[in-house]
Each structure stands twice: as C-alpha cells, then as structure tokens.
Give the backbone structure.
Amino acid sequence: MEQILKNKTHKRLSVFKSNIAGRNQSGSITVRHRGGGNKKFVRILDYKRPLKETALVISIKKDPKRSAFIALIYYIFSNVISMIIAPKSLKQGDLVAESYLQLDHNINNKVEIAYLEGFSYFLSELPVGMVISSVSLNVTKRQIVSRAAGSYCVIIKQDVSNQESKLTFIKLPSHKIIKLNNMNKAVIGIVSNIDHNKYTLKKAGNSRWLGIRPTVRGVAMNPVDHAHGGRTKGGRPSVSPWGRLTKGKKTVNKIR
C-alpha cells in the first residue's frame, strides 16, 4: 500500500475542472449566486467496475466535489488503480469484488452467496430487504442512483413470475418505488459520510470557499431590479425576480 501511494499513480485520476459560475454554454447565468471559491480537482470514479476480479482498498479519501467519501482500490491481478464511492463500513485493507450469479447446473439452484459491504451484485442475487446503493437504471449504463452521502435504497420485492422480464422493485431515498431489470447492478451498504448533513458553516467565508455568493433580498432592491423592490409593503405574493410565483404553486401536474 505504501509503495502505491508513494508512486502517486493515483494522482492521474484527478482532473481540474474550471468554475463556470452558474453560466451555460452561451454565457448566460442560469444558476444565481454562484462564483469564486477554491480550485477543486474532480476525481474520476469507476461506476461500472468492468474488471471481474478482487481489489484491495488502499485508502479512504475525501472528494472535494462530492459529499461521500471515496475509496482508492488496487486490482491485484491486473495491476490497475481505480476509485469508487465508499460504503459506510469500508476501511483500509478490505477487499471488494464483483459477484456474479452462480448456478449449479445439476440441480439448477443458486449457490449461497456471502453479502459483503462494498461488493457489486446483480439485483437478481440480492434478497428482499437488502440495503443497497449506487444502483444502475440500465443494464449497460453506469450506477447513478443513491450516490450521495448517507443515502441508500431498499429492495422490497422480487417479481419472478414473468420469465421473460424479471423485475426488482426498490424504494429510493425519496420513498418512491421503481421497478428495474434483475440484471442491473448495485453495491451493498449505505453510502459513507452519513454525518454530512450535520456540518455547519462557521462563518461567511466558508460559503465563499464553496463557490456560493451572497443572496440579496428582493425588498432591499430597487423596483427596476426586482418585483418586490421599492420598499412597498405587501400588495402581491412572493415572486422571483422575473415575476413567477415562488410559494404555493403546484409542482406536479395531475394525471387524469
């Protein structure tokens, strides 16, 4: 482990990303109150884990661009270094691997599988009630669901009645229930850094370091700058600077 960290080959997995300050490709501001902040390097993470072998966890790191911790892993046989999102209980020296469905061709039954945290499984391998994270929505695409700090999904049902399209029902962190193909992949365990939401900013400078600029109240502006400007008391509900309602409006269209 010390030799791998000393060679600093994992530094190549970090790429600098410039701050766009809330602007789109045409230069227009699409997200207000963004700009400045410390320079940050984006870590290139492996969301697919294409290597079908065991990897050793070298270290657990903090990624400045995401809330969860990341794990630096080393594939022993392929001599490859990669980074993945670290589950809560994963620590230095642990092993992570891909688990594939094993069938006994004589009796056509599944072989018992040990469910280890940090391992990547097919949804068909996991039982009902299992806590998972980093779930893929498509068989060929990367894992995109439940990657934030402390988030997780729960398997609530396995539908094997239809042999052509076997489905797995999972409950998302938003409590919404979706159905996915059994051949989609997921990682066992809750995402690390579960105390991320307890962090409080100590001073105004902390927000500026994060690239968050000050927010000015509409009533403190002039009428030309905001619909609430001019120090007029009341007269209309709360609106955005462009006159759209911000409180009490419907957010979901009712399907009839």
In short: Residues 103-188 form a domain with the SH3 type barrels. fold (CATH 2.30.30.30). The CA atoms of residues 151 and 232 lie 44 Å apart.
